[in-house]
Specification:
With 293 residues, the protein is an alpha+beta fold. Helices cover 27% and strands 29% of the residues. It has seven helices and 16 strands.
């Protein structure tokens, strides 16, 4: 795989299309040292960004929660996002808008820092090995927990919130797993390291944690809508890890993960059942259909 700093083409950077190799961030940027940085992850299907406006709105929400004022409007970011995928000729890939504080101040306070915005895009396939999306991925259970909601801006895609996700995923991979299940501050099921989680019970109903200390994913909401359109009951509730053995199926949802079945969480085994396959197919049909919207 080509390192991301060695790729070619253009990146939209502070209002201009800049050569990929010329986009520079100073080593003393506040965003690097103090995690004053927010971002989004978006999917391109057949040349169109799925739910672009929702992603951009969430980017602005994240920035506002972090005390960052983005020096562009949401419409300008939407236009720039479409422009960069056209410039890069990305048909099926990923878009990464990112906003961070610059290097004017180097301390906790960052009132006078410049706000930088960049949007990069590249061709990108499945987040997980396609074979694993058929067989189901394996999760361990992380020792790290999602912090209490009064300790962090939990409803944002802020870079600092992903530190424990990286630690959890690295540990999972060392143990032979694909990803890690994270619990919340109360010990209930929360999410995977970069995706929301659903469970199917023996009655054919779905259960998913209440997003009260972690991100309510755009894909999560989309899949809930698809499930309800199929008359599948969806219960958003607290789920204790002791309940895992009661469920028959499990899957993750996320912009990168899309709909990915889970074959096991630690010692708990799950089936890649017809419902999960159908939800995945319906989701993929939806994202392809939206290009005409």
């Amino acid at each position: 795989m080509i390192p991301y700093d060695k790729r070619s083409g253009k990146i939209w950077y502070n209002g201009k299309l800049v050569d990929w190799s010329d986009v520079k961030v100073h080593v003393l940027s506040h965003g690097l040292h103090y995690a004053s940085c927010v971002f989004e992850g978006e999917r391109v299907y057949d040349g169109f960004i799925f739910k672009l406006e929702e992603h951009t709105s969430r980017l602005f929400h994240s920035a506002k929660r972090m005390g960052i004022e983005i020096p562009y409007s949401e419409d300008e970011i939407n236009v720039a996002s479409k422009k960069i995928i056209a410039t890069q000729k990305v048909e099926n890939g990923y878009v990464r808008p990112v906003v961070w504080r610059g290097s004017e101040m180097m301390a906790i306070s960052a009132q006078q820092t410049k706000i930088h915005v960049a949007i990069a895009t590249w061709e990108w396939g499945s987040y997980f090995d396609p074979k694993l999306k058929v067989e189901g991925i394996k999760l361990n259970i992380s020792n790290w927990r999602r912090p209490a909601p009064n300790t962090i801006p939990w409803d944002t895609k802020a870079s600092g919130l992903y530190m424990i996700c990286t630690l959890s995923k690295h540990e999972a991979e060392k143990q032979g797993y694909t990803d890690s299940l994270m619990l919340d501050h109360e010990g209930n099921v929360a999410e995977a390291t970069g995706a929301n989680i659903f469970f199917k019970d023996k009655n054919g109903d779905l259960h998913t944690p209440i997003p009260d200390s972690f991100l309510d994913g755009i894909t999560r909401r989309t899949v809930i809508g698809i499930a309800k359109s199929k008359n599948i009951k969806v219960y958003e509730r607290k789920i204790n890890p002791s309940e895992l053995s009661n469920f028959e199926g499990c899957f993750l949802t996320g912009t990168a993960a899309e709909v990915t079945p889970v074959s096991c969480i630690a010692e708990h085994q799950f089936k890649v059942c017809e419902m999960i396959i159908d939800l995945n197919e319906s989701y993929l049909a939806l994202v392809k259909k939206k290009k005409a919207a």
